[in-house]
């Protein structure tokens, strides 16, 4: 029985020593790596957008007015070469050409307003 008690005391000392070792290792160990969290953004639902046409269909009268204004202002643009004949007196013009026509009309109106 005495041997058993001695063994228990020795076991307690060894066990107590290992607790201190565990505490020492825990205190001086490196911190666990930080958790990386990724932000997940919700995708926005794309609304059904109407495709914008890059050309307009005009008639011969519009094209004739455009040519007259362009000659009067002596201001041709490179997109004039993209005007296409569709048939039956219809032409397809780029939007840039249409805006150029509107700008020349506005300039003509401003000139007339200044003269009067």
List the keywords.
116 residues, 53% helix, 3 strands, alpha+beta, 3 helices
Spell the H/E element sequence. HEHEEH
Largest sheet: 3 strands, antiparallel
Report the sheet-strand fraction. Answer: 5-15%
Strand order of the largest sheet: 1-3-2
For the CA atoms, what is the radius of gyration? 44 Å
Instruction: Give the terminus-to-terminus CA distance.
Output: 130 Å
- Quick one: overall form? rod-shaped
Number of helices: 3
Please identify the structural class as seen in this structure. alpha+beta
Low-confidence stretches: none
Let me know the number of strands.
3
> What is the chains' assembly state?
single chain
Question: Mean pLDDT, rounded to whole units?
Answer: 79
Give a verbal description of the structure:
The structure is a single chain. 53% of the residues lie in helices and 12% in strands. It has a 3-stranded antiparallel beta sheet. It is rod-shaped, with a radius of gyration of 44 Å.
């Amino acid at each position: 029985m005495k041997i058993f008690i001695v063994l228990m005391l020795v076991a307690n000392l060894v066990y107590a020593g290992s607790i201190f070792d565990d505490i020492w290792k825990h205190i001086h160990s490196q911190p666990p790596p930080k958790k990386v969290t990724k932000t997940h953004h919700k995708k926005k639902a794309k609304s059904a957008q109407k495709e914008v046409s890059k050309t307009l269909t005009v008639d011969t009268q519009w094209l004739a007015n455009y040519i007259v204004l362009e000659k009067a202002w002596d201001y041709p643009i490179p997109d004039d070469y993209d005007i296409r004949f569709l048939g039956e007196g219809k032409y397809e013009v780029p939007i840039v050409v249409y805006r150029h026509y509107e700008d020349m009309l506005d300039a003509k109106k401003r000139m007339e307003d200044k003269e009067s």
